[in-house]
Amino acid sequence: xxxxxxxxxxxxxxxxxLKAGDDLLDESGRQDLAWIPLAIxxxxxxxxxxxxxxxxxxxxxxxxGVMAAGKVNRIQFSIGFIVIFVVLVLMGLPIxxxxxxxxxxxxxxxxxxxxxxxxxxxxxxxxSPRAYSFFENRFTLKAVVLFLVIPWPxxxxxxxxxxxxxxxxxxSAYISRRAISRDPxxxxxxxHP
Length: 193
Hints:
By secondary structure, the chain is mostly helical. It has helices at 2-26, 31-51, 53-68, 77-91, 99-122, 129-136, 139-148, 156-181. 75% of the residues lie in helices and 0% in strands.
């Protein structure tokens, strides 16, 4: 039971620290402090990716999707990638038992992650409020992971983990919005830059 708690808190922490680092870069202009939460997020990503093949494919698709969408636009993100790499070298990759299945899952999750990233840039609140809400909350990837549990039931814990990851991301976004709302010069904060 304690393992599951730590597992899901790892996902929550990965999302929380990733968004905190991103907001330190984009919203508060504290590039000097952004290294810390991005390194912690990278550590959590690496540990989770080493946990199972299902976590490896899920988190790899997120990393690849964000990179393909052009969201990795600051040098500070490199610390997260370096930490992920070091953790995977030290802990080792999980045993891959179903490579073709995992390749199919990776492609589907990658496409969903890119669609979410591009959709959040495309959707306009006034022109298409439903599309805006859907992409703003990254529901493509969150829905796809739940559907993938049907043919691959062992993917369930990773799918739930993604929802915890997003919860951590949203908690951090909420904290940032609250901090920025106190600053009258920065009222235009976007939840998913």
